[in-house]
Amino acid sequence: MTTSSRKLLFATNNAHKLSEVQAVLGPGFELTIPRACGITEEIPETCDTLEGNASQKAHYLYDRTGLDCFADDTGLEVAALGGAPGVHSARYATDGHDFIKNNELLLRNLAGVADRRARFRTVVALLLDGKEYRFEGVVEGRIIDHAIGHEGFGYDPLFVPDGSSKTFAEMTADEKNAVSHRGRAIRKLAEFLLAQ
Ligand code: ITT
Predict the structure, then answer these.
(1) Does residue 153's CB lie within 6 angstroms of at least one atom of ligand 1?
(2) Catalytic annotation on 48?
(3) Which of 76, 132, 154, 162 has the smallest set of CB atoms within 10 Å of its CB?
(4) How remote is the CA of residue 36 from the centroid of ligand 1, in Å?
(5) What's residue 109's pLDDT?
(6) Which domain holds residue 24?
(7) 10 found inside a domain
(8) Model confidence over 7-28: pLDDT tens digits?
């Protein structure tokens, strides 16, 4: 008996995200990236919510390819900063995706602050035959006062999820996916797709 994997276009330019998501979805799903469809420009993210950006990214690809696709938009929401950087997580310190500068700015803004509570929130927007579905994943944790670890990306070296003594950047991809915002959102996506 042969089994074929289900093809989905994933609206990301972030190679770390791609490998995390592929690991959660497993071999039953074959992910394609925008570049493989000839889309090389940066996909716009101009909304002021994670929901809006996830939906915008997925629609951008669907409008150009007509393929089933999904996008993930993620933000780090820090309690003592009123939920910042939130939807601005990628461009917190600069116009680009400068992880080191973003982490430095976060530490500066939390210098002397006792309340270190934070959470990552991921919103996934799926377009299936043009119809949109959304899935959310959240992980609560705290921001430590210096970077630890070299795995993962973004704010991972500063974030310790509740129930762990390690930052996300000290975890293997499987350990991070087991508890992370993205792992949770993508498992909901997979469950939904498998039930179709
Ligand atoms: P795409 O839009 O191309 O998917 P991106 O890196 O811009 O990639 P997001 O807009 O979803 O992704 O994420 C915004 C920022 O939030 C990202 O640049 C990281 O700094 C941070 N971030 C997202 N997911 C993260 C994670 O799992 N661990 C640590 N930081 C993360």
Answers:
(1) yes
(2) no
(3) 162
(4) 21
(5) 98
(6) 3-180
(7) yes
(8) 999 999 889 999 999 999 999 9
